[in-house]
Design the sequence.
């Protein structure tokens, strides 16, 4: 439990009132930093007034809809009302029910009514890879003698640091230098290299190059991810090819996005 | 609105969500909610969960539409369904871990894959935290809110009619600790921090 002084400091931190140095000090305090993400989430959730008001507006619409349904249910169940207005009410309800059934059926059955364009499928399902999505090593440099081996390892560290800091051009350059450092690089067919190259291209929104890089991943722990990201990249550049890859994912036993790929396929034109 | 009779364009829907236009929001509820509720309930969700997911989906789209580059080229309905589906997957996955699911649910819905999405994660997490927050007493809610509006303890003392600033500070401290404890104990929220 934080003491009152630390709690006050935390409030000032959350309100953005601390200096750089004070912020750094608080973030270095183990007692605070342990739950800092949670403190921040609580503060954000309680402080985003605009979203809170918006949600209240939506809840009011929902309440009105529910009240409307309840009131029409009551009207329909009132014996007197039913007897007096049996013909017109039943007729209106019958027509309304038919229309509703047709609309629901149309929503599910009419081709194109639930079609998602490749761009929108990408927008709905793509999440940019994060640093932790990288392959553990871009180059194993198996069978490579020093100093080439050490150079590759240095370049891999450079790649990793640049990627983590969001310097994707620099990260890409470090990868490119690997192929120049080792004349037999292509021969080694480094799976981590192609995968990491693919996710870096994705970050740079260079989808065609990303898809090409992912296509070179043929095995290893990132194979399922490579399939998925390749499909996402192709949604932006070659929807027909994206559909083929999604088809492969949907048939791939144990792929985490197997069912989702099938659903996206059904929605694509 | 560039609507033809009885039908809004994608831009109308997105603009309506962006500005909180009640006519457009009502129309979204009337047109699309029944089908989406049916879908989620068929997958094993409750009606209350389905309604919550629908509202959260609109908030997710609000966050996206206020950011850069959301332009739909397919029907808004399809996009809304995709967002609702992802929110349902998130709910389903949490349920599976925290309360277990019935055989019937498992049969109907075996895929718990989910594409992570920052707007979606934030919307669900914040909504869950707010559900916990409103379980605090009204006084506690007020004190915390005033403090996070940047108010001093002197102001809180005056507003709440407390005897001293020190007491206001102590109350805020106790209230926040209680809130933090409730948040930590909520398994649905804990999922986000594991």
Sequence:
């Amino acid at each position: 439990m934080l003491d009152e002084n630390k709690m006050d400091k935390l409030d000032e931190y959350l309100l953005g009132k601390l200096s750089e140095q004070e912020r750094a000090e608080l973030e270095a305090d183990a007692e605070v930093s342990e739950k800092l993400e949670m403190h921040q989430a609580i503060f954000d959730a309680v402080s985003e007034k605009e979203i809170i008001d918006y949600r209240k507006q939506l809840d009011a619409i929902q309440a009105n809809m529910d009240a409307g349904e309840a009131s029409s249910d009551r009207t329909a169940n009132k014996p007197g009302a039913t007897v007096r207005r049996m013909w017109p009410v039943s007729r209106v309800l019958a027509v309304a029910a038919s229309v509703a059934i047709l609309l629901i059926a149309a929503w599910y059955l009419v081709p194109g009514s639930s079609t998602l364009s490749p761009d929108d499928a990408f927008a709905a399902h793509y999440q940019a890879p994060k640093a932790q999505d990288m392959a553990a090593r871009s180059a194993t440099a198996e069978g490579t003698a020093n100093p080439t081996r050490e150079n590759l390892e240095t370049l891999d560290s450079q790649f990793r640091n640049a990627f983590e800091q969001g310097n994707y051009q620099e990260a890409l350059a470090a990868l490119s230098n690997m192929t120049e450092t080792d004349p037999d690089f292509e021969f080694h067919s480094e799976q981590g290299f192609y995968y990491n190259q693919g996710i870096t291209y994705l970050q740079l929104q260079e989808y065609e190059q990303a898809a090409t890089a992912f296509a070179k991943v043929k095995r290893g722990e990132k194979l399922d991810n490579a399939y998925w990201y390749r499909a996402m990249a192709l949604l932006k550049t070659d929807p027909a090819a994206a559909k083929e890859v999604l088809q492969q994912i949907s048939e791939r036993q144990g792929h985490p996005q197997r069912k989702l790929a099938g659903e996206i396929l059904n929605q694509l034109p | 609105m560039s609507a033809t009779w009885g039908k809004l364009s994608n831009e109308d829907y997105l603009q309506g969500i962006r500005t909180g236009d009640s006519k457009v929001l009502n129309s979204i509820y009337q047109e699309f909610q029944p089908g989406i509720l049916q879908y989620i309930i068929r997958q094993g969700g409750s009606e209350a969960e389905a309604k919550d997911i629908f509202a959260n989906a609109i908030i997710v789209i609000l966050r996206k539409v206020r950011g850069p580059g959301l332009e739909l080229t397919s029907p808004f309905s399809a996009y809304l369904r995709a967002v609702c589906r992802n929110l349902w997957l998130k709910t389903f996955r949490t349920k599976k871990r925290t309360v277990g699911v019935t055989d019937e649910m498992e049969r109907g819905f075996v895929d718990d894959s989910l594409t992570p999405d920052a707007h979606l994660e934030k919307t669900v997490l914040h909504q869950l935290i707010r559900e916990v927050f409103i379980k605090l007493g009204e006084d506690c809610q007020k004190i915390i809110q005033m403090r996070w509006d940047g108010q001093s303890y002197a102001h809180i003392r005056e507003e709440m009619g407390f005897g001293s600033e020190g007491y206001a500070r102590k109350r805020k401290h106790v209230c926040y600790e209680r809130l933090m404890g409730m948040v930590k104990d909520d398994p649905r929220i804990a999922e986000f921090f594991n």
Remarks:
- The two ends of chain B are 45 Å apart (CA to CA).
